Amino acid sequence: MKRITDWIKSHKPLSAVIAAVIIVPGLAVAWWLGSPLFIDVVVDEEFPALENAVIPAGMSMPDADATMEAAMDAPTEVEEEMMEAMGAMLAPEAVKWGEFRDGDAFHKGSGMATVYNLGTDGYVLRFEDFNVINGPDLRVILTTHPDPMGRGDVHADDVSYVEIGKLKGNIGNQNYPIPDDVSVDDHHSVVIYCKPFQVVFAVAPLSFN
Predict the structure, then answer these.
(1) Which of 51, 90, 95, 148 is the most core-located residue (most Cβ within 10 A)?
(2) CB count in 10 Å sphere of residue 161
């Protein structure tokens, strides 16, 4: 033991370097893993624009917008009927939706998840009034499981899932385009998932509208 103590005393600079090599990366990893729990990331995205929305024949999108604005300022009976018809054509279709629940006693989540059909623009998953405890490297996944309770359900042999994006913020309204090769009908819940630790933070079981 005395020899080890003497060696350390005689090699103090080297010992300091070794300690730094071990401790500094460890602290960086600890900060990366733990700091999100104490930091909120707030986003507030508007609903995605319908660039290819169906509007009355012979009318451009700017003309449609101008007509809607004018009708809102001083609507006549005809304009009100036009607004109603145009609103129906421009409105996206909500095909599936569900409310977020907690992943467990510690990982809390709330808000609404809705899958919208944007026509030729495909499908988008939108979160509204969303709030979940923050964590390291959280991902948004769609799974064929109807209501996964943990990683065992997410990774079950008879279950499949697809990651559609990294969580943009743990609070606020946000949009996630669903890839064209993902079947909305076959995926039955949204999961906020911590990728490094494979922990379910929140789940929104989806039902057909």
Answers:
(1) 148
(2) 20
Q: Please name the residues in contact with 74: beta carbons below 8 A apart, sequence gap of 6 or more.
A: none
pLDDT digits 0-9 by tens, 88-97: 455 689 999 9
32-38: average pLDDT: 58
Q: In what order do the strands lie in the sheet with 109-117?
A: 174-178, 123-132, 109-117, 93-99, 207-208
**CA-wise closest residue to 86 among 50, 46, 55:** 55
Instruction: Catalogue the E-assigned strands of 81-136.
Output: 93-99, 101-102, 109-117, 123-132
Beta-carbon contacts of residue 148 (< 8 Å; ≥ 6 apart): 154, 159, 189, 191, 200, 203
How far, in Å, CA of 13 to CA of 16, rounded? 5
State pLDDT tens for residues 128-167.
Answer: 999 999 999 999 999 999 999 999 999 999 999 999 999 9
All residues at 6 or more sequence positions from 165 whose CB lies less than 8 Å from its CB, including other chains:
139, 140, 176
Between the CA atoms of 99, 101, 107 and 109, what dihedral angle is there, to the nearest 10 degrees?
30
**Coil, strand or helix at 75:** coil
Question: What is the pTM for the complete model shown?
Answer: 0.69
DSSP 138-178: EEEEEESSSS--SHHHHT-TT--EEEEEE-S-SBS-EEEEE
